[in-house]
Structures are given as C-alpha cells and as structure tokens.
Amino acid sequence: NLCIFSHVASSSDDWEAVCSSHGEERIKNFDSELDRHMMQTITDVKYMIKKSKYTALSEVNFQRGCLDAHNELRQRYGIAPLVWSAELADMAHAWAVKLSDRGRMLYPELPGCSPIYFDPQLALLTLRLPDELTPLGLRIGENILITEANEHSHLPTGAEVVAGWEAEVEQFDFDRPRWNPKCQRFSQMIWKDTTELGAARAWNTAKNCVAVVCFYRPSGNSNAPGEFASNVPSRDCSMSPARSLAGQIKRSVTITAPADHKRDT
C-alpha cells in the first residue's frame, strides 16, 4: 500500500521535523549528557592502573558507537533519536559486570513484576512495583548480548551489536505487529515512545565472556491494544524517514491492534 502525502519533505527535513516534535531543547542537548558521562569516565581513569585505563576508554568508545548506531537506525525509520542517560548506563554497567561474571544470560525482571530499577542508596539493581502499579514512563526495557571473547578476540562494537539486533527485522510481522521473542530486540530499538538509552559492555577475561547490556526508558514492546501499531513503522515505510512518517499516521488512523495480553517475562 502506497502512503501518499500532500506535502512530503526531504529525508533530512523530515528527520528534523520528527526531532522537533520531541522538543528542540531535548534534541539540542541529547549529546551533552553522554559527553558529561564520558568526561567523568576520562577523569576517573587518572587513578586507574594502566590496563583499567585502556578498558575504561574502550568502553567510552563503545557507548558512543552504540548510541550513534541506535540513532542511525531510528533515523532510517523516521523516529526521533534517543537521549543518553548516565543513570541507565550505570545500571547497564552493573548488570553487564554481573552477567560477564556469571557467563550466562540473566534478565533483570521476574514474571508479574516491573523491570529493574537502580537504588542509589543501596547501589544495586532491585525489583519494585508490579507493572499495573508502575507508571509507564518509569518502566525500563532491556536488550542483552552474551558472547565469548579471549585476549585475542575482537570485542563487539556498538555498531556491530546494533546491526546484529537489527537483523531480527526478518522475523517481524509488519502485517500483524505484535511482540515476538524472536525480534524483540529490534522492535525495542525502534520503539517510538522510548526516549532514553544507557549501554555498557563488560569483559571477564577469566571466563572469556563479554556481556553487552542496553537499557531503555520508557520500555517498548508493550502488547497493550494499538501500541505496536503506533510505535513501530510499517515495512514499506522503512525505506525513508518521510515514508515512515506517512506509515505511522496511516496506521494510527486505520489499524486497531488485537487486545493481546502483556507478554510473560
């Protein structure tokens, strides 16, 4: 189905229009939070041993690449860029370290509970209110990757991680958009209502394990009626931001998603 506008802007103009809908100030400063976070890391490495300094600076590059790759993907779908969250990044780092120590996949949530929160007083990840009692804007989504890596291995970059999750698009049913465990990482990355990202990578050299954790706020992949239709653009509109906008408007007007139950976790 061809999406038709009486006015169609260029890709760059369209991208700017999408961004402006989320507030010029937020977009203008979306890099500053990441820059502050990175500068704090660079300041901290002065007191680290040589190997730790290299690791910390490598992670700074990973975080920048991860945010850029997410936003390049979202731009192709005509969706506003994500803002870096130092809070989510610290949470992601804590969880990535735990996963690399364990050497296996663990998700920081339980059935019937909302996603994780970071308690600064206890300095740990904890579960809070049930979903029905947790404001939607405070719920946190996650994408996680566990892989092997020894001292001679190439550690996955932010761009490579995002590209791997993007490949799940082949499993997504654009004709009947809904949560699918085979492509949940892809749909989370392009979820329209998600505005913040925090990411971290941890490498446990003793166990040859690398863990990558991305946390998103508000969380995506909601199966509430109409959520996928309004938050994930159609397949036909993925070729350019302008077509993506047209698809989102058309779908929000003409499509009513089935009343699915929220996914089990």
Question: Summary?
Answer:
The chain is an alpha+beta fold and 265 residues long. It is 41% helix and 13% strand.
What's the arrangement of secondary structure elements?
Blueprint: H1 11-20, H2 24-28, H3 30-44, H4 50-76, E1 83-84, H5 86-102, E2 117-119, E3 124-126, E4 141-148, H6 158-166, H7 184-189, E5 196-204, E6 209-217, H8 227-231, H9 241-254
Parallel strand pairs: 1-5
Antiparallel strand pairs: 2-3, 4-6, 5-6
Helix pairs in contact: 3-4, 4-6
Primary descriptors:
265 residues; alpha+beta; Pathogenesis-related Protein p14a; four-stranded mixed sheet; 6 strands; 41% helix; globular; disordered C terminus; SCP_GAPR1-like; CAP_dom
Question: Would you kindly provide a written description of the structure presented here, covering whatever features stand out?
Answer:
The chain has 265 residues and is α+β, with helices and mostly antiparallel strands. The protein is 41% helix and 13% strand. It has helices at 11-20, 24-28, 30-44, 50-76, 86-102, 158-166, 184-189, 227-231, 241-254, and strands at 83-84, 117-119, 124-126, 141-148, 196-204, 209-217. The radius of gyration is 19 Å and the shape is globular. It has a four-stranded mixed sheet with strand order 1-5-6-4. It has a single domain (11-254), classed as CAP (Pathogenesis-related Protein p14a, 3-Layer(aba) Sandwich). The longest helix has 27 residues, at 50-76.
